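Per your request, structure below.
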């Protein structure tokens, strides 16, 4: 069968294609490109389709209209710009102080010179007996520690200027970690440069999103921040109530079984000695529940380290419990140990994990050498001089006995542990009894109650004793405690001075509260 003759159109198309083909072939390397496309299409047609799509997309992108951020900006004249500048009022860098803020600033005492058991305060001619510091064992005044700190300053300088994991670790840092572990009875310990950020770093180092924290609902502010930063699931139990803790743990266990939830890391978080209430956690029962329900325990010993127990080793020493039964013992070195920073003690794995996962450890300059050596020496003194603890408990008992006078029964509540624990807690909160306010028909706001307590503080100062109101971050605190005066007992005062200070506090309370309202 004969083919139909080519039309003029067909001839033109063939001629054009042939010319284009000859032009392309004349380009160096074009033969290789044709062979590549032919083989790629035969072996993998999807690949050539994808590559062509990408080529067309790139061409379209390069040829599209370019976006300019200020294309739609409003054009202002010079006059309009000047008018806007004149009308603009910058926001204050520091918010305006309320009358209550000004009151707190005015009533903040200024210590002149070194802090001691009898310290000089601006506005007072004679030194005041200091009941406003956590210097329980009076180690701040230790000449031995002071000289060791001076020697460390000369040998190591003021600071390390670097985080521990880089070039901030000194031999004395490692020695302090060994001293803490030996003192508490744990395998190892790690130290942090800031006491507040220690617990708020330890918690999120172990508990992450999706994990579970079961927390006492009256823990201190640093723990609250650590719980918040961790972004874990949180269940709260009633303050220091082991029956309620067991109820919460049972509910979690039943809920897990019922909904077949995946296994997550789970922790119980609490304080050993509660800074806002002065009561001691019932550790044996807590450890029993921890083991029964298979939880890890994070215990904050910031207030109890150095003062509780036969050796001053904290609540584990107080109850005779093996410190290794507590997974993480966290504490501050800024109270009884007369230094700064904090620590976390536990197993080797617990400590090693924090060296890379503890944010406050990794991203903060390490503890200055002079403060490091001060903490080590404080631990040595506490270990070698158990009489300091006996003296402290005698002072506490004497102070409490004075405040237990029947003339104060109707006026105040003294928040602290009951039973045998009461004699070993070196601080307590004094709060006005609600029944006393009700009997006077006094419907006071929180600010009014703070101002009333400040009158007691001022009266104590006028008689020679420095005390302070307990301070809180009111708008962020969970379960904000009622206003209180916080008393700290110290062996820096002699028995006679301690009794005198207690009498001053008693007298100030009676004078201010009894004369405020006349029946």
């Amino acid at each position: 069968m004969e083919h139909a003759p080519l039309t003029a159109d067909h001839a033109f198309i063939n001629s054009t294609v042939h010319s284009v083909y000859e032009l392309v072939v004349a380009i160096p390397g074009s033969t290789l490109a044709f062979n590549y496309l032919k083989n790629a299409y035969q072996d993998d047609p999807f690949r050539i389709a994808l590559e062509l799509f990408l080529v067309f997309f790139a061409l379209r992108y390069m040829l599209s209209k370019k976006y300019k951020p200020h294309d739609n900006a409003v054009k202002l004249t010079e006059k309009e710009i000047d008018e806007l500048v004149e009308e603009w009022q910058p926001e204050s860098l520091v918010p305006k102080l309320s009358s209550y803020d000004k009151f707190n600033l005015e009533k903040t005492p200024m210590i002149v010179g070194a802090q001691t058991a009898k310290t000089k305060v601006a506005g007072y001619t004679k030194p005041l007996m200091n009941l406003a510091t956590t210097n329980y064992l009076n180690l701040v005044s230790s000449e031995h520690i002071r000289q060791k700190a001076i020697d460390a300053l000369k040998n190591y300088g003021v600071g390390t200027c670097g985080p521990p994991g880089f070039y901030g670790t000194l031999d004395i840092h490692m020695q302090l970690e060994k001293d803490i572990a030996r003192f508490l009875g744990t395998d190892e310990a790690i130290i942090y440069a800031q006491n507040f950020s220690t617990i708020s770093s330890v918690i999120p180092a172990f508990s992450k999103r999706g994990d579970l924290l079961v927390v006492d609902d009256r823990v201190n502010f640093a723990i609250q921040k650590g719980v918040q930063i961790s972004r874990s699931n949180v269940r709260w139990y009633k303050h220091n109530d082991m029956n309620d803790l067991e109820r919460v743990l049972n509910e979690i266990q039943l809920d897990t079984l019922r909904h077949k939830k995946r296994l997550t890391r789970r922790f119980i978080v609490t304080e050993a000695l509660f800074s806002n209430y002065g009561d001691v956690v019932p550790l044996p029962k807590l450890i029993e529940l921890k083991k029964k329900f298979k939880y890890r325990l994070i215990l904050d010993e910031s207030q109890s380290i150095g003062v509780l127990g036969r050796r001053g080793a904290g609540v584990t020493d107080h109850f005779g419990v093996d410190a290794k039964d507590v997974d993480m013992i966290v504490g501050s070195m800024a109270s009884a140990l007369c230094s700064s920073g904090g620590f976390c003690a536990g197993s080797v794995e617990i400590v090693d994990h924090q060296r890379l996962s503890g944010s406050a450890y990794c991203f903060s300059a390490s503890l200055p050498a002079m403060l490091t050596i001060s903490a080590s020496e404080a631990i040595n003194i506490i270990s070698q001089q158990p009489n300091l603890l006996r003296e402290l408990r005698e002072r506490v008992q004497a102070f409490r006995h004075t405040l237990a006078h029947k003339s104060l029964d109707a006026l105040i509540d003294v928040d602290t542990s009951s039973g045998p624990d009461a004699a070993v807690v070196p601080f307590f909160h004094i709060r006005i009894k609600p029944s006393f306010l009700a009997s006077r028909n006094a419907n006071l706001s929180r600010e009014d109650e703070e101002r009333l307590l400040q009158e007691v503080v001022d009266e104590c100062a006028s008689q020679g004793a420095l005390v302070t109101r307990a301070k809180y971050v009111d708008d962020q605190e969970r379960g904000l405690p009622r206003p209180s005066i916080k008393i700290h007992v110290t062996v820096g005062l002699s028995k006679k001075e301690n009794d005198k200070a207690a009498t001053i506090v008693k007298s100030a309370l009676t004078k201010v509260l009894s004369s405020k309202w006349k029946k």
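The domain at 99-130+387-516 is CATH 3.90.1150.10 (Aspartate Aminotransferase, domain 1).

Regards,
D.
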